[in-house]
Amino acid sequence: MESLGLSYGEYPLERECISVHVGQAGVQMGNACWELYCLEHGIQPDGQMPSDKTIGGGDDSFTTFFCETGAGKHVPRAVFVDLEPTVIDEIRNGPYRQLFHPEQLITGKEDAANNYARGHYTIGKEIIDPVLDRIRKLEGEFSEAREDMAALEKDYEEVGIDSYEDEDEGEE
Predict the structure, then answer these.
(1) Mean of the per-residue pLDDT values for the chain?
(2) What is the C-alpha separation between 166 and 152, in angstroms, rounded?
């Protein structure tokens, strides 16, 4: 960090992670992980969070893995991919079906029948573009948020305020 010109206290701690779960095992493990994340952070299966746990109310660590919509719903930053729809259909019809945006659940029409070449060169080739597009879209949403935050920080610097917290202290 020192080589970057940052001391420990100045290092930006906010991070965003995009999880990509591929294949039957990846999708099943990913689904179990997201159920656990929801339980750990108090997010309900429909993506809602009790009002006492909203952003800014203490522990915001869930923002690394979830993004909040304008309606207050928390959506995982994840993409689930399988060539065959059966396992992802379990998510679409399961108790956490309202947690994920439908575009995050990407399936093909048939599996590769345990044939690597078929999955890599034929069927997999058909699904790779929608998967990469969805990942780019998720990443683009983060980039826009970072740009907005950088513009806000610049505005604070121009008026001589270090952060929005300094602004609150001045009101007392």
Answers:
(1) 80
(2) 14
